[in-house]
């Protein structure tokens, strides 16, 4: 969230109130328009308050057309009813809401099974507000494990420069050095050998991403583990891997079943995912799982009262809504493996087709094709000089499409791309409409004398 501050200048402008709710309402309660930056002095009727808030929100984008976000923007009405029924339940009150606690436990068990935990009853896990919190917890476990064998150095975490900002946060908040493998040439994510070269006795772990936020590609987790096996043989250092499966941990198990990226690899100590991304639940729910109790040091676990006994918990916050966890259980139950496979395959089909259709326009070069995460990144072809990806993003916005353009990190800061995230609810038909709009824009874009420029801060500050 932005760190909000007050208005730059004293601003006493009140909200503007539709006369229907103000002076033209004979039974109205509105003596004065409410201020924007102070609590109003007097209450107002629920219908007036509703209308004021509702009207302001009209200017938000349409979430279904938001191709920037990985986060679920459509759920079935039945899921919405369940969420409404549970929005008053606090997830931490395990004793008061034992059935909600049980559904959370079942979700962890289902994920342990899905991710091939060698002994699902030994795996431990918890729900979180999203992958960011899950990554903080996983990073803390890695750091604590390292501190037990610490020889006095400063801890470091090795990962690709393409990691999501939550890992930079983790390193900053928990005072861990971030050792980042840069991008090189046409390689836009971590290289196992380059990662191993950054490891030493103070490396708390290596993060592998399934898949990368920048372009939707899967990082080679199995090769990373193999490289770390060889490193252990040479040096004796046993460095665990955490898989950030924010999106891919809910895609690969259904449409890439043979890909070994999870607890099948003995070096993988922990995995996170965002239930609210390809887990198909409205925001905010995530999951963090550890292979076994050894991977999650016992002293990090707190206990809350549960049916007269105590229940172990691992979380950054205390209170949290139960609705999303219930909705996750609903989705697991409702879809099962076959249902998830159908949904993720449909998204992948939309992504791969749209990527090929965009490539066929001739003006663009694909970096990825949507055949790993249903996500692809593309840039302008080398001979396109009249416009750039920022112009495309801006012009598509005029048609309601939110397609982000951003610059890549070191060593490919020269590369700017557009990225399309295909999610359930972004149908083949919607993809065709996007393509038609893009086609219609091209003649005008080609007629530009040069790219129209952009706000440099915005172009590089894209992190999700
Ligand atoms: C790879 C990766 N990790 C972590 C996150 C953070 O996830 P969340 O938004 O659930 O906190 C994201 C978000 O896009 C991501 O793509």
Automatic annotation (TrEMBL):
Q: CDD domains, alphabetically?
A: DOPA_deC_like
**Which NCBIfam families does the entry link to?**
Glu-decarb-GAD (TIGR01788)
Q: What is its EC number?
A: 4.1.1.15
For this chain, the family text in UniProt reads:
Belongs to the group II decarboxylase family.
Q: Where is the composition biased (Basic and acidic residues)?
A: 1-14
User: Does Ligase show up as a keyword for this record?
Assistant: no
Q: Reaction catalysed? A: L-glutamate + H(+) = 4-aminobutanoate + CO2
Q: Where in this protein does the record put region Disordered?
A: 1-42
UniProt entry keywords in alphabetical sequence: Decarboxylase, Lyase, Pyridoxal phosphate
UniProt xrefs under PANTHER family: GLUTAMATE DECARBOXYLASE
The GO terms this record gives for MF are: glutamate decarboxylase activity
Which metal ions or organic cofactors does this protein require, according to UniProt?
Answer: pyridoxal 5'-phosphate
> What's this protein's name?
Glutamate decarboxylase
> Which InterPro entries does UniProt cross-reference here?
Glutamate_decarboxylase, PyrdxlP-dep_de-COase, PyrdxlP-dep_Trfase, PyrdxlP-dep_Trfase_major
Would the keyword Lyase turn up in this protein's UniProt record?
yes
What taxonomic lineage is listed for the species of origin? Answer: Bacteria, Bacillati, Actinomycetota, Actinomycetes, Kitasatosporales
Q: In which organism is this protein found? A: Streptomyces fuscus
Name the domain of life.
Bacteria
């Amino acid at each position: 969230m932005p760190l909000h501050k007050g208005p730059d200048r004293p601003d006493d402008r009140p909200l503007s109130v539709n006369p229907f709710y103000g002076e033209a309402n004979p039974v109205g309660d509105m003596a004065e328009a409410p201020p924007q930056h102070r609590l109003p002095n007097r209450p107002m009727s629920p219908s007036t308050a509703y209308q004021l808030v509702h009207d302001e929100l009209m200017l938000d984008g349409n979430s279904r057309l938001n191709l920037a976000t990985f986060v679920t923007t459509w759920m079935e009405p039945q899921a919405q009813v369940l969420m409404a029924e549970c929005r008053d339940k606090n997830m931490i009150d395990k004793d008061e809401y034992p059935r909600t606690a049980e559904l959370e436990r079942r979700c962890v068990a289902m994920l342990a099974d899905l991710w091939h935990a060698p002994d699902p009853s030994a795996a431990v896990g918890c729900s979180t507000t999203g992958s960011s919190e899950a990554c903080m917890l996983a990073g803390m476990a890695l750091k604590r494990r390292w501190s037990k064998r610490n020889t006095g150095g400063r801890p470091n975490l090795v990962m690709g420069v393409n990691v999501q900002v939550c890992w930079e946060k983790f390193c900053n908040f928990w005072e861990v050095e971030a050792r980042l493998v840069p991008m090189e040439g046409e390689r836009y994510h971590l290289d196992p050998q380059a990662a191993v070269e950054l490891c030493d006795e103070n490396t708390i772990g290596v993060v592998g991403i399934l898949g990368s936020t920048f372009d939707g590609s899967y990082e080679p987790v199995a090769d990373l583990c193999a490289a770390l096996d060889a490193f252990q043989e040479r040096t004796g250092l046993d460095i665990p891997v955490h898989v950030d499966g924010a999106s891919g941990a809910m895609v690969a198990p259904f449409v890439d079943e043979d890909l070994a990226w999870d607890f099948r690899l003995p070096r993988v100590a922990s995995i996170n995912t965002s239930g609210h991304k390809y887990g198909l639940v409205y925001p905010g729910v995530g999951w963090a799982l550890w292979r076994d109790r050894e991977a999650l040091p016992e002293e990090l676990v707190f206990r809350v009262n549960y049916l007269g006994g105590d229940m172990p918990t691992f979380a950054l916050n205390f209170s949290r809504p139960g609705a999303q966890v219930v909705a996750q259980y609903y989705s697991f139950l409702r879809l099962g493996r076959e249902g998830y496979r159908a949904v993720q395959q449909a998204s992948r089909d939309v992504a791969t087709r749209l990527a090929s259709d965009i490539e066929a326009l001739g003006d663009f070069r694909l970096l990825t094709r949507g055949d790993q995460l249903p996500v692809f990144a593309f840039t302008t072809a080398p001979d396109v000089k009249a416009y750039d990806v920022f112009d495309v993003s801006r012009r598509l916005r005029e048609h309601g499409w939110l397609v982000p353009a951003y610059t890549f990190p070191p060593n490919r800061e020269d590369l700017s791309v557009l990225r399309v995230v295909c999610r359930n609810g972004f149908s083949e038909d919607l993809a065709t409409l996007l393509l038609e709009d893009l086609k219609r824009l091209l003649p005008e874009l080609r007629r530009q004398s040069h790219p129209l420029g952009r706000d440099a801060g915005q172009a590089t500050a894209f992190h999700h």
